[in-house]
Amino acid sequence: MSERSKTLKDKLFFGLNGFPDQMTYQAFTFLVFTYYFAVIGIDIVLMWLAYMIWGLWNAFNDPMLGALSDRKKYGRLGKRKFFIIISLIPLALMMIFLFTAPSLIEFYYFIVIIMIFEFIYTLFDVNVKSLFPEMWPNEKERTSANLVLRLLTIVALLFAMVYPTIVISPMVPLPDSTPEEIAAIPSMYVSAGIVFAVITIITGALFIIFGIDEKE
Predict the structure, then answer these.
(1) Are 64 and 122 in contact (CB under 8 A)?
(2) Within-domain flag for 97
(3) Which of 25, 83, 116, 180 has a Cα-to-Cα distance from 92 of 20 to 30 A?
(4) pTM of the model as a whole
(5) Is 216 contained in some domain?
(6) Given this model, what pLDDT does residue 73 score?
(7) Is residue 19 part of a domain?
(8) How many of the other CB atoms lie within 10 Å of CB of 191?
């Protein structure tokens, strides 16, 4: 590993992957059920059915993408960086599309969009996770890089949990909510998703440009 990749600055740039990686998934976990159940109004039985289908999809999706990542290198972009690059923009867009369910087909949209999100997220996440031991083979360097990554990941997770509660108010229709307030709730979810998308693109781009030093 080069001397350049051992600096604190490089560890900070590498640690930025915690935002497109963990921030997006935390926001997904925190907001999607609330949005489709309490805001859109999908029946709880249908929600359960959708999550069952999603779980079955995960059982197939995760090992498939892991195997695909390990197959070969893609030119100068290597094995991991290639997939990280092509998945970043779609991952950011998913943070918006998760909250744009068309009327009349909300349930079917919910099933499709969470499966697409899982596919794109896994494509990004599995390659980031695989890249870490390849970039930091030395135990001492790996420990310090992991510390920086964990600290930035905590910031990303806290932001994903706290920010929506500030900008989405109320997060669900309340008994005393006016029709205007209820009608405005979905757009607040979209606005929060846009912010998550922008942060994902910025931090992800910095991570890709300055934080990845994939070995030959």
Answers:
(1) no
(2) yes
(3) 180
(4) 0.92
(5) no
(6) 65
(7) yes
(8) 15
